[in-house]
Structures are given as structure tokens and as C-alpha cells.
Fold:
Amino acid sequence: MKVRVAVDAMGGDNAPVEIVKGAVDAVLARKDIEVILVGIEDRVKKELSNYTYPQEQIRVVHASEIIATEEPPVMAIRKKKDSSIVVAMNLVKHGEADAFVSAGSSGAILVGGQLLVGRIKGIERPPLAPVIPTEKGVSLLIDCGANVDARPSHLVQFAKMGSIYMENVVGIKNPKVAIVNIGAEEEKGNALVKETFPLLKNCPDINFIGSIEAREIPSGYADVIVCEAFVGNVILKLYEGVGSTFKRMIKQGLMSTAISKVGALLVQSAIKKTLKAFDASEYGGAPLLGLNGLVVKTHGSSKAKEIKNSIIQCVAFKEQQINEKIKQNIIIEE
Amino acid sequence: MKVRVAVDAMGGDNAPVEIVKGAVDAVLARKDIEVILVGIEDRVKKELSNYTYPQEQIRVVHASEIIATEEPPVMAIRKKKDSSIVVAMNLVKHGEADAFVSAGSSGAILVGGQLLVGRIKGIERPPLAPVIPTEKGVSLLIDCGANVDARPSHLVQFAKMGSIYMENVVGIKNPKVAIVNIGAEEEKGNALVKETFPLLKNCPDINFIGSIEAREIPSGYADVIVCEAFVGNVILKLYEGVGSTFKRMIKQGLMSTAISKVGALLVQSAIKKTLKAFDASEYGGAPLLGLNGLVVKTHGSSKAKEIKNSIIQCVAFKEQQINEKIKQNIIIEE
Structure:
């Protein structure tokens, strides 16, 4: 049985060209996927006509409207009933798709996830949980934009859901969970962290290792990095910002003298490989966890490769029955 | 008239060797500085005996105790009356020194600053404000560790003090002030940012340019970056963490093949120069603003160069009469 992934053909800076290409690449790579491209039918079909692919693995569902990035999300989700995001989320809601992938408006995806797809019963806040590159591999940053001003009980649910995801989708046994803090000691932190710390410490289902200072995040010290959304968003974006500034500055450095230009030719491929390991787009999109179905947000600037990886990611999520595990491990015991 | 800088000879990972060396380098570089080295007299004098320097520019004040990094700060400041931090802060308090530089326990320095040196009347919370490297030069990150769970009025004072510091000490005319946020729009943010935003917008003394997303910090989009201490601490430490991970990974990349090793020799100096521009130790320490005197916290790992730069930084602070400007521009109008 195929995993059915609805894809927002109109979302992101490179829609529909890169989205459609990513969908085609995904079905060419995997036979166990059916992609439902949601968007303006004529434009999507025209793009599709450029490719050869197994016809039974891609179908198009028409949606006449597009939600722009700058639109107020709640209003957009309520008014634009025939937008690609709303139509695709309704497919998930009604069980016609298992998952939804979009590079469109973050706000609309977060709001739509809650209002249309709906939370799993007992989940207080569905967190956005991107995987970020580290020296050792990847870590899950949870929450990263969905819920500002969170409460301790939310963070405990984030820790549990994050552990289930890392163990079953990313394949890290007994993932190490840490809470972002401004010092290593238990008595450090703001009010939220001080209240949450003992709850995590006493939580039997997770491998809690204590606080993590931001300095240790890139080294891969923890597998699941728990924080409230404001802090998570700052971490994610600064990660990207410092990374791209470094890349630009090193390029300029390499081009600065005649000698360094010659050297640049020789080190080019080695440096590219290094920088690629720190490139978030290699790792697919960020799942919005705790919903009645899977919603994956990819970068607005996503190209075919990130779309393809995000679609493929949905297979592991479905096959590993992440939502069933969340229901069993989180809801029942609470 | 000389600027009198008390220096914690016993603070930090490399005390007293690097601290004493930094003090000597500072007085060799500038005739307008007098350094008061505070610490265990025998050890400090023994170190000093290795150098030739103008004797009238360095004196030693004995302090028999040392506050360790892991000691609970409030207790340490109260009990260890003869520690280098307490003795030096009392010199500032009693007007025998203009400033205090320490690479010792952050917690003890923050607590001691408030309890011993004391706040300028009207300043609610003295923020720690390090200068961080950017593509364009430097930005001031304020607050970065002193006060978690801050209120909007604190952030407004941070913005004003930060503007005065950047304009007068770092020399940036009409510095651009931005508040760290998770989106560019005014309606984005958590409760604290939403409340603070209109206050900053209506503040006549600062050049407020709105929100800054963490992604834009490394590019130098704003000169004064306002945030509460938890977020500021995460930004500062992640900056350092991503930077050092990148350095390590690029070094490994350069050493990965025979060809890249040859190239590495040619690009070495260009890359070093680039990475140096992103090295926080080039920029001296972080001032704790809003106190009756200047307190500067440098990295625990500070070597002579950072100590020297931090001592020299105190001259501009004194000469530009930063505290008088803070009193005039912040306190009187409120």
C-alpha cells in the first residue's frame, strides 16, 4: 500500500517548477509513494508534461487560490477555502492523504494544521520540529515556531514526541533529550526552564540528560533539543545566518589574493563537501507533530531536492506509525 | 589624568599569567591608563617580575581569596569579602578605580556589580552587552545574561543605553536599534516583544528600525540588538558554537585529501584572516551597563590580547562620560 502525500504545488519561492520536479523525483525514487499535487490544475499539468514518470503515482487536485506568505494566516485559512493549503489539508483531514508537504506560508501551515487537520486528542500544542545538522549528524529542534509563550507541560510533550520521532524516523536509539538553558546547572534558567527541568528529569519515557547551552548545539551534544518556540526560532535562524555569512566570507577570503585563488581550486571540493554537511536543505522539511496526520513544512526557498526528501520522509513517518506511538506513549499515561 | 582600571588577576582559565601579561601590554600601549592588579600579591608580583614596564602605571592590591566559576554567586560575593572580585569592586564603589575588568565567574560579576558597585539611580536592570562580530563590523547584543524574565521597560532602557554605548564608545553615528523577533511584522512575537515594540517605536532618543530575525544578525543589519537575557545568551553562545564548529569542519575538510592539503597551504592565510574577523576575542569584553562605574566581563578563556583590549576599552568609556550620558538621557526624562 502506497503512502499518499499531498504536496502544495503553489507554495514557496520556486513554485510550481521546483515543487513539481521534486514530486517527480520522489516517485521515480520510490514505488511506495503516491503524490497528490494540489494547485492550479493547468499550471501544474503543464509543468508535469515536461517529465516522464509512472502516471499512477502522481495525480493533480485543483485548487484555484494561493495563500501568499505575507497574508495574516488565520484570515487566509478561513477565507481562502479553495487555496492549495486548505484543499490539501482537507485531504489529510478526510483521510484521502496521509501527509501534506508545503513550502508555503509558515503561519498558514501552522494555523491550518491546528484548525483543519486538528490536534491528536490530549496534545496541547503541536510543535514544529526541524532537524538541524551537527558535527555528529543531526538533532531535532522542538519547538521551533509554532507556539510562543509555552508552558512547562507543553515542553514535556515536545520532549516525548521528539524522542519518538528521532528514534523511529531518524533511527537514533534511546535519543538524548536536553533543554536549552543558559548554564549547565539545574538552578540556572528563566522561570519556564526552572519549572520544566524537574518535570523532564522525572519523566520515565525519555533519556533526559539535562541542560544544553546553545554553544553545544552544533557539536551534536543532544539528539532532541527542547525549547519554547521563540528561542527555537532564534536558534534555527541564527544557525542559517551564521552559516551563510561564513560561507560568503570564506568565498571572499579565497578570492582575495592571487595565491589564494590558485589554492581555492584545490580545496574547492573539500570545502564544498564540508559546507554541504551543514546545509539544512539536505535533511528534508520540518514536521508539525501531534496532528491527526502528518504536516511537513519545508523552506520557502526549497528546490526539487528538499521537496523530494520531504516527501520521502513521510513514508518513514507513516510506516513507523508515529502518530499511533504518540497516542500510546503520551496520551494514555497522562 | 589616567583612567584607573582594576583588573581581576585571579579570574579566568589563564590567570594570573595571561591577565598580568594583558595588563602589561595595555600600559605599554597607552600612557593614559593605570592598572590596579587585584589578587594574591606574591603570585601577581612574581608574574610581573617577568616584564619591563612603566612602574607608575601598574600597582598590586592584595586579595587573599578567589571565587571559583562554579560557586553560587550570591553566597560567594557575601562570604568571600577578600576575594579579588569583591576587593576590586569595592575599589570602584569607593571611587579608587574607574573600571573593573574580570575574566572570572560571570554570575559573581553580575551579582557583585549590582550589590557592590550598585545601579545608577533609575536603572531597573543593568544589562550585560557584548559586542559581536558581523560582516559589516560589530553589533552590540543587549542583554546577554544579566536579567532573565525581563519586562518591557527594561528592554527600553537596554535600547537607550546600548545606543549611547555604540555611538560614543564604538563610534557608530545614530546607531540602528532592532528588537530580536521571530518575524519582521509588528504583530509577530511573544508577549514581551509585542508589548515592547510600540514602546521602542515611540522612543524619541533612539533610531529604532523594527524587528530583526536571528538570521540577519550576522550580516550586521542592526547596530544595537535588543533582547531579554535568555535569548541574548542563546544568541551569543550559538554564535560561538557554530563558528568554532565551522572552523573545525573546514580544517578537517582541508586536510581530507592530498590535493586539498596542497591547496590548504595556499589558502591558509586568507582563511585565517576571514575567521579572525569572526573571533569575539578581538573585540574586548562585555560591559555591564547602568552601574555606578564600569564593569567589564571578558571570556573565561581570555588571553593577554583580550585582557589588553578590555582594559583599553575602559578609556573610551570614561572619556566619553558614558555614565553621565546615561544619567542625562535615560533617567531625567523618565
Summary: The two ends of chain A are 33 Å apart (CA to CA). The first strand of chain A starts at residue 3 and ends at 8. Chain A touches chain B through 63 residues (CB under 8 Å). Chain A has a mean pLDDT of 91.
